[in-house]
Amino acid sequence: MSPQVVVDGLISGALIGLGAIGVTLTYSILRFANFAHGEFVTFGAYAALALSAAFSSLIAVSGDGLGPFSISPALIIGAPLAMALTAVFALALDRLLFSRLRGKSEAISVVMASFGASLAIRAAIEFVFTSRPSYFNHELQIAQPIGFGLKATPNQLAMLVVAVALTAGVYLLLTRTQLGRSMRAVSENPSLARVAGVDVEKTIRAAWALGGALAGAGGVMAGLLVQIRPFMGFDLLLPMFAAAILGGIGSVPGAFVGALIIGLAESLTVQLAGAEWRAAVAFTVLVGVLLIRPAGIAGRPA
To answer: Which of 70, 71, 249, 292 lies at a 20 to 30 A Cα distance from 225?
Structure first.
């Protein structure tokens, strides 16, 4: 096995991890699997693409990369705004759809509603932007040696650092702030949390916004490292769910570690068996975890 597999797997896993954190937050607090979460990733990528193009043309921000990175100043400005827009989009979807079903419908009805929302959002994105792949930058980056016979592009290293930083930030938010304590309380027992004075609806909105923002960041990462297309979020959906379940529902560090494991497994599969088997890895890991340890790595056994 080439040691390069480790680098490729970690980078792929970091990308999956940002989406998996949103999945685990949504599932632990709202008690349903949101199949539209993959479309948040896609929305974030296209929002960043549109914003960076607007900044490049309206305020004459250079579209060239900064230093060794193919990340333009326009994209640096647009990416945080795209995360914010994705958070707003997630909140709007909850307001228009899920809040109307919450507490009034069976869980399967909410899941099917999220599946329908996923199809509708993907179709709308494809209608507006077409199915043709888009790119933040057409500049070709060459992988550089980083030691021990390993190689990575500057973009890959930057995205890995950003993903770790965002994950650490979310973990600190959940463990060191009042909002985080409220989110954990609602995750444990919404009724008891409400009796204790927690604003459950506000906490739910915070979970949607946080998950949406992280998905938007994942979309920007995917667009920089691969390409932007309407099905990009859908392709990441199963690995994100597998990572969330592998890490343990409700655990942010667990979701990120689970994503790294999924990324490494996919990278190893590509090298040993071919890229056509990559999609089967997440499903295999998901089934294995459900059979052997349903609580996941960091989850509490029932």
So the answer is: 249
